[in-house]
């Protein structure tokens, strides 16, 4: 995968190596500041901004290492693709931000740790990833290669696309969070399909950035994070009633639908 040709997005935050893991001031300290402000006639809004802006102020200089550059490239490449797709239907694609962290960080969806795995937060439209996950993917889950890692980011970008299209709100409103046929699983499978669609775009361009065998790294990665496989690994058996992301076979299937067709309209996992 010739990812360096994907360009460099400026929408990548590097929160790694921040003391305290980049967690914002706890509620206690914030509350004290707010009370002081109210007592002394300051503008509470200013204090709230200070509290909320805290993690930004702590932001360390980007390490500009390979993980950071890779993130810049994948965000740039997905921006280019989804920007075009949205434009064709008269919409505007608002670029998401990728936030790299180590250990833990504060997000618009609450505090996160590396244990929660990569995720997308619709409240601040940011994708959160501890790049150590990519090592786990290669070693623990057996999904090696740059496109396996690219699939992970592209899947989270897929959630951002859903957010932009209003699909995420509809699913959240349904409150249907678990089970092999739940709306939550369908949302995850659609994000896999969107990642596959983008893979197809990279593999079918005039001077392909991804070869067809590299595209298969995405399939392997999608299979490796199936609910059944993860549950079997951790407790020895799988219970479809508690699935949240879909089985390995489902994830492989929907990634492949996207990768084969290159058409996001084929990603209707809700049908
Ligand atoms: Zn997901």
Automatic annotation (TrEMBL):
InterPro entries: Uncharacterised_pept_Zn_put. The keyword Transmembrane helix applies. The chain crosses the membrane at residues 21-42. The keyword Transcription regulation does not apply. Pfam families: Zn_peptidase. It comes from the Bacteria. It is a single-pass membrane protein. Keywords: Membrane, Transmembrane, Transmembrane helix. It is found in: Membrane. This is Metallopeptidase. It comes from Deinococcus roseus.
């Amino acid at each position: 995968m010739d990812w360096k040709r994907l360009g460099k997005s400026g929408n990548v935050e590097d929160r790694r190596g921040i003391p305290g893991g980049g967690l914002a001031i706890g509620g206690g300290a914030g509350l004290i500041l707010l009370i002081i402000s109210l007592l002394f006639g300051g503008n509470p809004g200013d204090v709230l901004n200070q509290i909320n802006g805290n993690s930004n102020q702590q932001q360390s200089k980007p390490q500009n290492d390979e993980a950071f550059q890779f993130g810049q490239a994948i965000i740039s490449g997905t921006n280019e693709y989804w920007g075009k797709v949205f434009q064709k239907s008269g919409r505007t694609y608002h670029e998401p931000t990728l936030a790299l962290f180590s250990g833990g960080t504060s997000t618009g969806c609450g505090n996160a740790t590396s244990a929660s795995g990569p995720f997308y937060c619709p409240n601040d439209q940011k994708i959160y990833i501890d790049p150590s996950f990519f090592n786990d993917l290669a070693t623990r889950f057996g999904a090696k290669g740059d496109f396996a890692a690219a699939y992970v980011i592209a899947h989270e970008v897929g959630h951002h696309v859903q957010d932009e299209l209003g699909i995420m709100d509809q699913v959240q409103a349904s409150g249907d969070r678990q089970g092999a046929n739940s709306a939550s699983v369908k949302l995850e499978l659609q994000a896999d399909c969107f990642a596959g669609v983008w893979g197809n775009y990279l593999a079918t361009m005039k001077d392909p950035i991804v070869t067809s065998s590299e595209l298969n790294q995405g399939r392997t990665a999608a299979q490796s994070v199936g609910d059944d496989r993860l549950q079997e690994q951790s407790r020895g058996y799988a219970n479809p009633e508690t699935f949240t992301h879909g089985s390995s076979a489902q994830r492989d299937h929907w990634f492949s639908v996207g990768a084969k067709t290159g058409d996001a309209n084929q990603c209707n996992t809700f049908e």
